[in-house]
Amino acid sequence: MGEESDTLRTSRSRTLYHLSLAGLAFLALRPVAPLVRALDLLLAPSAVLSHLCAPLAWMGGRPAMAGEGQAEADHEAQLALEQAVLASAEPRDPSCVERLAGVRALRAEVSGRPRDDRDRIWLRLAQPDAISSLRTGDAVVSGDAFIGIVDVETSRLAAQVGVVEVQLVTGAQFRLGAEVDPADSRFTGPIVGRRRMVVGGLAPHPDRVLLAVHNPEQPGGVGARVIVREAVRDGVRTHLANGFVLGVLERGIPAAWEYASARLAEESVLGIKPIMDFAHGLHQVLILTDTESETSVDAASDLVLPVQDTAAWRSTRLLLRGEVSPLRAGRKISSGRVTGVSVGAAVSAGTHLLGRVIRVGPLGADLSLIADPGLRISTIALVQDGSSKFPHVLGQLTSLGPGSAGTVRFHWPATLPLVAPSGVDSGTGLPVQIWTGSGDAGLPRGLLIGEARLPFGPGPHVLEVLLATDGHLGYGARVWVGAPPDLLKQGAAPPEEEM
Questions:
Q1: What is the predicted pLDDT for the residue at 205?
Q2: Looking at 114-118, 343-347, 363-367, which range is the least confident one?
């Protein structure tokens, strides 16, 4: 009887063990948020013990940092990109440059957008003290493009974390006076008479993003660019951006109508193709205000590259593999909520991006590496064209997983396609370095992702990117905690929800 009892107890223990193992495997494949948080708390003592034993691991760990020569080269490339990106906020068109002579232009960086309103963005000013001088309706531009207006009245963040809210021209209720540029006759011939209209919101086109046109004064002008043209009126401040570009006037024909009758073609959607990627391509901007002050663009010499802001980073360690599936690429890190880490935070090795945090616990977090399918990154490319370099906004890249020869494949929608210069074979593309851009909460600009050849023409394209990291990940990683906690509490949109 005693032996049978021992056998039964052993069998019962093994059954419970296997059931527990199967349950944990199921949770690994399909996490349940309350149980995951409970396990985080249950295993917190083990995490504390691992932190206490960290010095033993450091002795044998390989730091995840670039070599001294490589780090210096990356730093020089960072500075070149920074100068190009900051310069991209300033207009190049002579009429727009002339317009800046009579206003004050404040530099600002896009720092994120509300979760529940994709037609608004948040700006962080290069000179935070200037926030008090802004007024609702001040125009916001980037390069030659009009973006939207400052909305001080509804900005809940300005007084707390120095962030100003902006209403984009894509908003359904936005209205702006505009006209076909009489000086632009590239496709339409000489434009006789004024072709004024009201612009705001998005046109109901199923295939393309077009700004909506309301009450056009007269037909014509298709193919020419549309510029801001507002009268000077009390309470209206968009006249500060007169002459800045909204886009190119087009008559968009949905793909399903290509072989339809002429009558349907005549009923096609009239809209404006913007020259900016409003969803993922906004980085550096200028706020135009007529408050009494200096009348030039604020100098950029005092701006600090975010990746060099040591106060915004925390040292961390890369721990166990974070994904059970061999098709995924993830790790766990030794930093969590108590050290300020939030969902969407970047994790880097030196100046190289390793991935982004997708789940945060009290003392640890799960990291999605660059090669993890589905990882989304706001990016900008530094294009090498002969002896010159210039930035090109890529927008959001989505990882498709490992490619050939150690590369990672990315889906690039090419909302703003790369145009082939004259005399260049359109099939070759141009060599680029791909860096993180701004506008995505938790992801600072200026982290190197890798190198690729950027194809010309409209997308979508698949990019084969050779990563900057060499794949040997050690204990020298760091995690970004620069996103203000108040910003995230008030509804920032992280790349994925916290479980």
A1: 78
A2: 114-118
pLDDT, mean of residues 440-449 = 86
pLDDT tens digit sequence for 408-441? 999 999 888 888 776 666 677 888 999 998 888 7
DSSP structural state of residue 217:
S
Contacts of 40 by beta carbon, 8 Å cutoff, 6+ apart: 361, 362, 363, 364
**How far apart (Å, rounded) are the C-alpha atoms in residues 442 and 112?**
9
Same domain, 93 and 78: no
Query: What rounded mean pLDDT belongs to the chain?
Result: 77
Q: What average pLDDT does range 73-92 have in this prediction? A: 78
- How far is the C-alpha of 383 from the C-alpha of 391, rounded, in Å? 6
Burial class, 105, CB count within 10 angstroms (exposed 0-12 / middle 13-18 / buried 19+):
buried
Average confidence (pLDDT) over 132-146: 90
Q: Report yes or no on 166 lying in a domain.
A: yes
What is the per-residue pLDDT for 221?
Answer: 77
One-letter amino acid of 219: P
Q: How far is CA 479 from CA 3, 152, 343, in A?
A: 56, 32, 11
Boundary of a domain, candidates 263, 289, 315: 289
Helix (H), strand (E) at residue 36: helix 33-42
Domain range for 51 is: 33-88+303-499
* DSSP SS3 for 81: helix
Q: Looking at the structure, do residues 40 and 175 belong to the same domain, yes or no?
A: no
Q: How far apart are CA 435 and CA 432, in angstroms?
A: 10
Q: How far out from the chain centre does Cα 159 lie? A: 24
CATH of the domain at 130: 2.40.10.340
Q: CA dihedral defined by 231, 171, 445, 111, rounded to 10 degrees?
A: 90
- Amino acid symbol at 109: E
* Alpha helices for 236-353 (secondary structure H): 262-266
Rg (CA), the chain: 26
Burial class (CB within 10 angstroms; exposed 0-12, middle 13-18, buried 19+) of 303: middle
Q: What's the rounded Cα separation, in Å, for the pair 62 and 196?
A: 64
* Closest by CA position to 430, among listed 419, 441, 438: 419
Q: Is 297 inside any structural domain?
A: no
The pair of three-digit structure tokens given for residue 247, joined into one six-digit string: 């886009």
Say which residue, 1 or 215, is predicted with more confidence: 215
- For the CA atoms of 76, 78, 81, 87, the dihedral, rounded to the nearest 10 degrees, stands at -90
For residues 110 and 74, the model is more confident at 110
- Please say whether the beta carbons of 207 and 252 come within 8 A: yes
The span from the CA of 332 to the CA of 323, in Å, is 9
For residue 414, the one-letter residue type is: A
